[in-house]
Amino acid sequence: MARLGIGVEVVQRPRAKGFEPLPKRWVVERTFGWLMQHRRLARDYEALPQRSRTMIHWAMADKLSRELTGESVPTWRIEIGEAL
Question: What's the confidence (pLDDT) of residue 63?
Answer without folding.
Answer: 87
